[in-house]
Amino acid sequence: MIRARRTAIGLAAAALTAIALAACSSGSTGSDGAGASASGDEYGLVSAGTLTVATEGTYRPFSYHDEGSGDLVGYDVEIAEAVAEKLGLDIEFQETQWDAIFAGLDAGRFDVIANQVSINPEREEKYLLSEPYTVSPGVIVVNEGDSSISSFDDLAGKTTAQSLTSNWYELAQEAGANVEAVEGWAQAVALLEQGRVDATINDELTFLDYLKSTPDAPIEVAVETDDPSLSAFAAAKDKQALVDAIDAALEELRAEGVLAGLGDKYFGADVSE
């Protein structure tokens, strides 16, 4: 179990504050129609009563559109929906390209980002990050049969394809790789399969999902990182009450088995811890 960074006392206080505020409200209802929350004004939301969530909408299996219905679906999408329901809030998604998503958060266009935001010191300094809801090791992916990379040291002088703002970009640079900037996994894996780059680094879950939908893809994992990547909701520094409430909601969803169930739905395993 991931150790919570905030004390149980702090979470209990946040919960009691939310209950007290709800009791003083006019009885407006959340998305479940049960009157579980006030308007959500105590969280400083962009739109009262609605959790506005930024996500790519092109990042399968975390945030993407169902080919049949066209609906926005995915692991992160359903986690965000479950959290909003716990908070008694409606939810609105704003689809935003990854390279612009933090700028949108800085500009106050949405309340949180739910798009596999990895926790790192730089983001912890600038943003508030919730407790992790996804745990995944990173992997170096190469073309099938390529034995020239068996460690991160072997990336020196090689070319990798990475998103400019991702943790993997920094990791590739630190290993001495020449980094080809891409918009995401789809472009990175295309360049790899075309032989235009030697490797790409990403989280294992993305790789496994790609293999599930493209079982004949001629790629394989060469190396796995020792430390897993932890992904969380990201919010602006003035959203402490909201992040505290999200943490409490995530803890309840974990205890109820909801997080494990969503992991099994999308990956065949609990990926929340």
UniProtKB/TrEMBL annotation:
Annotated ranges, domain Solute-binding protein family 3/N-terminal: 50-270
Name of the protein described by the UniProt record: Transporter substrate-binding domain-containing protein
Primary site of residence: other
Keywords attached to this Swiss-Prot or TrEMBL record, sorted alphabetically, are: Signal
Asked if the record carries the keyword Signal, the reply is yes
Q: Which domain of life is it from?
A: Bacteria
Which family is it part of? Belongs to the bacterial solute-binding protein 3 family.
Record's CDD domains? PBP2_Ngo0372_TcyA (cd13711)
- Per the UniProt entry, the signal peptide is 1-22
InterPro entries according to UniProt? SBP_3_CS, Solute-binding_3/MltF_N, TAT_signal
Q: Which organism is it from?
A: Agromyces agglutinans
